[in-house]
């Protein structure tokens, strides 16, 4: 769904549908409880995730994204919160506060895609391939595109 206001498209970045787990905590006065969720989509500027409760616009959110044995911490700001009638959840759109956070999430997205690619190639080849082998193939195929997205003047 397009994010339009008075007929003008407000999105600056292309969304990539991808589902990976995350935990988030809204910065508020008092104790904030960490909640679990999953992403709906990710872009260079932010991400969309589902939540059981609404979150106020402009709230700061600390996001923790696990990948294998690592945890990646990201800071973001809520830019929209909409109830999803079909899922009875809220879709929370956040924008990253620093370029480093955007880059971290993009790398995490790539790692999850490499794992999916590994599973697909293993099925195609009829044998398990290692994450390293899948990573080498992935980098050969997609690293130039990734480089163009993030490095000006390349």
Secondary structure blueprint with pairings:
Elements: E1 4-5, E2 8-9, E3 16-17, E4 21-26, E5 35-42, E6 46-51, E7 60-67, E8 70-84, E9 89-96, H1 99-125, H2 131-150
Antiparallel strand pairs: 1-2, 3-5, 4-5, 4-7, 5-6, 6-9, 7-8, 8-9
Could you explain how this protein is built, in words?
Mean pLDDT is 82; it is low at 1-11. The longest helix has 27 residues, at 99-125. The protein has 154 residues and is an alpha+beta fold. The protein has two helices and nine strands; from the N terminus they run E-E-E-E-E-E-E-E-E-H-H. The two termini are 32 Å apart.
Q: Given this structure, which CATH class of the largest domain is correct? A: Mainly Beta
Beta-strand percentage range: 35-45%
Alpha carbon gap, first and last residue: 32 Å
Radius of gyration: 17 Å
Biggest beta sheet attributes? 6 strands, antiparallel, barrel
**Overall number of strands:** 9
Overall pLDDT, averaged? 82
Instruction: Tally the structural domains.
Output: 2
Give the fraction of residues assigned to helices: 25-40%
Structural class: alpha+beta
Helix-strand pattern, N to C? EEEEEEEEEHH
């Amino acid at each position: 769904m397009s994010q339009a206001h008075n007929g003008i498209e407000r999105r600056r970045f292309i969304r990539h549908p991808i589902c990976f787990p995350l935990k988030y905590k809204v910065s508020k006065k008092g104790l904030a409880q960490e909640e679990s969720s999953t992403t709906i989509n990710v872009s260079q500027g932010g991400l969309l995730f589902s939540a059981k409760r609404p979150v106020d616009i402009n709230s700061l959110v600390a996001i923790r994204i696990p990948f294998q044995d690592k945890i990646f911490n990201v800071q973001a700001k809520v830019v929209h919160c909409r109830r999803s009638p079909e899922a009875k959840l809220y879709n929370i759109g956040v924008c990253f506060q620093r370029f480093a956070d955007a880059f971290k999430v993009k790398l995490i997205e790539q790692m999850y895609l490499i794992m999916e690619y590994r599973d697909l190639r293993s099925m195609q080849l009829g044998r398990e391939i290692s994450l390293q082998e899948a990573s080498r193939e992935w980098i050969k195929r997609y690293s130039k595109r990734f480089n163009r997205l993030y490095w000006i003047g390349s």
